[in-house]
Design brief:
The complex is a heterodimer.
Chain A (H helix, E strand, L loop, with lengths): L3 E4 L2 E4 L5 E7 L5 E7 L5 E9 L2 E4 L6 E3 L9 E3 L8 E8 L6 E2 L3 E5 L1
Parallel strand pairs in A: 2-11
Antiparallel strand pairs in A: 1-3, 3-8, 4-5, 4-9, 5-6, 7-8, 9-10, 9-11
Chain B lengths: L3 E4 L2 E5 L4 E7 L6 E7 L6 E7 L4 E4 L2 E6 L4 E6 L8 E7 L8 E2 L3 E6 L1
Parallel strand pairs in B: 2-11
Antiparallel strand pairs in B: 1-3, 3-8, 4-5, 4-9, 6-7, 7-8, 9-10, 9-11
Classes of the chains: A mainly beta, B mainly beta.
């Protein structure tokens, strides 16, 4: 099993550009989440999904969209990138009440 | 929503000493409290977790204690080793394993 995978590993965007961060898991997990990690602020939940076709907002959803068309994939879309979205983004998955497994992260810089 | 505070933000200990990291949470409905270790440039990885029906849990040199009345939980690492150096995050969740709210992290440095 590959576990949780994320692409790309690094990305540089200009202000106003849009892009999609990819996340996939092969563990048949119901739950998937997106977090951003900023220095000194831990990880903050952006959006989450409890199953295909079901998504909801987390603590910091503004500027991001998600969809969950399959169990395996949970892409995160930045609609119009801003410097405040410079961060490390982690995708995670879990099965019901079990442990959350994190992907390797995507380091995003917005100029 | 849930708010998790973590202290200290940095902790330096000598190899072999014990380290204690403390967290408080605000929502009494939270019932799942994991601890993650993150090495530099790597993903967070679970090291231990505890559920609200348990007061203490141990795994070799690591232990976690939970005080539901006071709404705080702590990570204890005994006989610290240089490889324990990392950032440690506590978290809390109402739906065990999902929608985690994280503390701000503690950078632990173990000096040889």
């Amino acid at each position: 099993n590959a576990g949780v995978t994320q692409t790309p590993k690094f990305q540089v965007l200009k202000t106003g550009q849009s892009m999609t961060l990819q996340c996939a898991q092969d563990m048949n997990h119901e739950y998937m989440s997106w977090y951003r990690q900023d220095p000194g602020m831990g990880l903050r939940l952006i959006h989450y999904s409890v199953g295909a076709g079901i998504t909801d907002q987390g603590e910091v959803p503004n500027g991001y969209n998600v969809s969950r068309s399959t169990t395996e994939d949970f892409p995160l879309r930045l609609l119009s990138a801003a410097p405040s979205q410079t961060s490390v983004y982690f995708c995670a998955s879990s099965y019901g009440g079990e442990v959350q497994f994190f992907g390797p992260g995507t380091r995003l810089t917005v100029l | 929503g849930e708010n998790v505070e973590q202290h200290p933000s940095t902790l330096s200990v000598q190899e072999g000493d014990s380290a204690v990291i403390k967290c408080t949470y605000s929502d009494s409905a939270s019932n799942y409290f994991p601890w993650y270790k993150q090495e530099l440039g790597k993903r967070p990885q679970l090291i231990i977790d505890i559920r609200s029906n348990v007061g203490e849990k141990k795994d070799q040199r690591i232990a976690v204690t939970l005080n539901k009345t006071a709404k705080h939980f702590s990570l204890h690492i005994t006989e610290t080793q240089p490889e324990d150096s990392a950032v440690y995050f506590c978290a809390a969740s109402i739906n065990a394993g999902n929608m985690l709210t994280f503390g701000g992290g503690t950078r632990l440095m173990v000096k040889p």
